[in-house]
Amino acid sequence: MSTENKINKKQLGAALIVILILVFAGNMLSNISPKLGLSLITGLFFGYILTRARFGFAGGVKKIYITGEGSLTKALLVMFAVTIIAMAGLQWAAAADGAVVKYLVEGNAVKIPASGSVKTLNLATMIGGFLFGIGMMLAGGCASGTLTDLGEGAFRSAIALLFFAVGSVPGLSARYAFDQSALADFSTIVYLPHYFGYIGATIISLLLLLVLYMITRKYESFRRSEGHFEELEYDERDLSLEENEDDSFFSFKTYHKFLMERWSYMTGGLLIAVMFIFVVNTTGKDWGVTSAYARWGVAIFDSLGFDMTGPAFASYYEAVQQGLINDGGTIRNIAIIFGSAIAFLLAGKFKFDFNFNLKDAGYYAFGGLLMGFGARMAKGCNIGALYSAISNFSLNGWGFLIALSLGGLFALKVFAGKVNIIPANRYQTEEENSEQISA
User: CA–CA distance from 235 to each of 76, 135, 146, 374, 416 (Å)?
Assistant: First the structure.
């Protein structure tokens, strides 16, 4: 047997220790509130799935732009489609029983599950989405990606995460100022089933996703014909097992299959959809990430002596005063980090990554600030303002998607080759090679 085809016992032991600690933490949290224990469990699953499949929302824009290969983008679109169909049934049933969308709730009316994602579409949404798109490229990942990358040992994510939280505070101030200004008058809030019914809203949403899927396929064909296409390759965790590898159940081959082998993007997307639906069914709310970041930011500024009692920060400050340990979003986000770490430890591939210089660190920090500011301007990130919004038939999700994609493409073009996580674009590379040949 190859020396590579062995279980990394040290990392396996570390994974088991982490799991035992989390079991103890889960019991403690459940004693405080069962919802906190549930947040821990769902966060662990989200982190494990995202890392096991190397699945990321920012990669849906970045990967296809850099390589021309769109399997991640297509998996994201299928994930959206599955979630939309599930949410249509859930919300239709709730509406039939008299529930209404959250922004229309009055008195004792029951809220349609996850309808808190239905938010206004306006200039702030578009500006926030564009800035977030730039930030996620400079930081090397979106809100959830920053958490999973940190769990995988990438120290750059710790920098991005800190500045994400810090950037959320001025973002809260800016969005509050926007909402009080005349610009807020040019806003619309659209819940598609109100106009097209649940069947119509589902069909329209799926058709839009199909259009994006076909555009992705066309772009892949264009890049192939252009000669700038990189086939999907699995990472080094996908070891080539020897043909005579032991086939018994208690063998490395079995361990590799269940705990090391990388899942496809499509598998990752489908499992994320299942977890999203599970969160909605158990909490009545959708999956969100960045509101917790904003609470962390408010906690940081509060600890530094800043006045966080103003109306822009009121709900976040209240959560901080009640203790972040009682915040389900905080628990879930921290659990995502640990779920990701467990995935890499079980695979024997966890390592700390400090492969960047001071200039790169500055870009990560700037990216984090932009993501924090942008997420609060848009009232969400790739999860809350995009995935959750589109899956819950809110028009603002489609607006955020356009702005986010434009911001991401802008960053990939403008900062190509200037930061270590954004390679030089294909045309720059060709020019450099031509210059080297001429020299």
Answer: 20, 25, 19, 32, 23
CA atoms within 13 A on the CB side of 313: 23
- Measured CA to CA, the distance from residue 169 to residue 183 in angstroms comes to 21
pTM (2 d.p.): 0.93
172 Cβ contact partners less than 8 Å away, ≥ 6 residues apart: 294, 297, 298, 312, 313, 316, 376
Domain contains 313: yes
Q: Indicate the number of domains in the chain.
A: 1
Say if 412 falls within a structural domain. yes
| 3-state SS class at 223 | helix
DSSP bridge partners of 374: none
Residue in the structure block whose two tokens are 């005063």: 321
- Cβ atoms 401, 390 nearer than 8 A: yes
What is the rounded distance in angstroms from the CA atom of residue 5 to the CA atom of residue 274?
32
* Span of 63-72, 176-185, 260-269, 430-439 with lowest mean pLDDT: 430-439
Instruction: Say which residues have a Cβ less than 8 Å from residue 267's Cβ, sequence separation at least 6.
Output: 53
DSSP 8-state code for residue 104: G
Identify the CA nearest to 151 among candidates 296, 16, 344. 344
Containing structural domain, residue 118: 58-146+155-238+245-273+288-325+354-428
Beta carbons within 8 Å of 63's beta carbon, 6+ residues apart:
69, 70, 72, 73
Confirm if 158 and 435 have CB atoms less than 8 A apart. Answer: no
Q: How far is it, in rounded angstroms, from Cα 256 to Cα 249? A: 11
Instruction: Tell me the pLDDT band of 253, cut-offs 50, 70 and 90.
Output: confident
Contact between 284 and 115 (Cβ < 8 Å) = no
181: in domain = yes
Q: Is residue 188 one of the residues assigned to a domain?
A: yes
